[in-house]
Amino acid sequence: MEVKVYGTSNCARCKGVYEMVQEVVAEKGLDADVEHVTDPKVVAAAGVMASPTLAIDGKIVASGRAPKKKEIERWLAR
Question: Where would I find the H helices in 1-78?
């Protein structure tokens, strides 16, 4: 599974989402590659318009808000 958190390097909410995703992956023992994407060119190329944005296997599941841990758990369980 590929999980990407898009946002700027100085975005506290983005960092929080990234850390929460890592926490859920570790707690659930999931096989996932988690990446915090901060390069503006890469973010723009992905079509991301708001931060933070969370994408799982190329599909955006949340944008412009920090999802709750339960939401992340549900999305990663699929």
Answer: 12-28, 40-45, 69-77
